[in-house]
Write a structure and sequence with these properties.
Number of helices: 10
Order of helices and strands: EEEHHHEEHHHEHEEHEHEH
Largest sheet: 5 strands, antiparallel
Length: about 300
């Protein structure tokens, strides 16, 4: 049996096939290697509903548990060769089935075989290289795990302190209907993290910059369309994020600098989020919609 691997993706918005690589599976005759990125999982959970975030985490933990159980059996029975069927649910045929038909929050790529000339090879080294290539490097993982302030924690604390002043997680359709927006982008599931008013709209968007550049650009593209629509309403637009590491996330750092230089945005670093509290209080910001109209996830 030739060794093979599969990449697992977290589905953020299935309507436009937006995904983030989150886990790696590598299978050879003697062991199943499975690892998911705890750092990326934290990021993804900020972007999903509570229900879908729990489902994703449960699926990843279940796969890790199944791999550990099967590895224990393989270690106890090393005398006999292992067939592909014994690896189910990690067999190539089952991965192919999941790749074609699974509509879950967790998407799995079809198995890719590795052609290795040497009879003896270092499975752990191969797995580590695949994981670093497709999921994250150790330095990225360390950086993500050591982000001083969690995006989700900052959001939750801000919302709790200002729940009488803001609408939370307001979807694009609600915005379009209320403000008479016209752009076609609102056919897609877009939302703004918070919304208020003090004569003019006050908006806020949180975004973690320690993510894949392609995903970041996509999220910002939709956000900039929202800003274009709000321009006619003289909105104040807060953008709250962390500063990406300039060496590990060089492209993201350039994007971050562009955001800071954007005159339509008031950039707030996560460590300075109290500035928003002060502004909301000083300018007596109030919710745009009644409590019953607020759309939360």
């Amino acid at each position: 049996m030739k060794p093979y691997y599969s990449i697992l993706f977290a589905s953020i918005r299935s309507a436009i096939n937006e995904q983030i690589s989150i886990a790696m599976l590598f299978v050879d005759r003697n062991k199943i290697f499975f690892k998911y990125s705890g750092a990326k999982l934290k990021i993804v959970k900020d972007l999903l509903s509570i229900e879908h975030a729990k489902l994703l985490e449960d699926q990843l933990r279940s796969l890790k548990q199944q791999a550990d159980i099967l590895n224990a059996k393989l270690s106890a029975d090393e005398i006999f060769p292992v067939t592909e069927d014994q690896y189910k649910p990690f067999s190539k045929s089952y991965l192919e089935y999941l790749n074609r038909y699974s509509q879950n929050t967790l998407q799995i790529s079809a198995a890719t075989e590795l052609f290795i000339d040497s009879v003896s090879y270092d499975s752990q080294a191969i797995f580590s290289n695949l994981y670093n290539l497709h999921i994250e490097t150790e330095s990225e993982n360390l950086l993500l795990d050591q982000t001083p302030i969690s995006i989700q924690a900052a959001k939750t604390e801000l919302f709790n302190r200002n729940k009488n002043r803001l609408n939370i997680n307001v979807r694009s359709k609600k915005l379009k209907d209320f403000y008479k927006f016209e752009k076609a982008l609102f056919l897609l599931p877009t939302k703004i993290d918070f919304l208020g008013k003090n004569g003019a709209p006050v908006t806020g968007q949180f975004l973690n910059m320690h993510v894949e550049t392609k995903w970041l650009k996509d999220r910002l593209s939709h956000y900039y369309h929202l800003l274009d629509e709000f321009k006619a309403h003289s909105a104040t637009n807060y953008f709250i994020s962390n500063e990406p590491d300039k060496q590990l996330f060089s492209e993201n750092h350039k994007i971050w600098q562009q955001i800071k230089d954007n005159k339509q945005i008031r950039y707030i670093h996560l460590s300075e989020i109290e500035k928003i509290d002060k502004d909301l209080s000083d300018y007596d910001v109030q919710p745009v919609f009644t409590e019953d109209d607020t759309i939360e996830e």
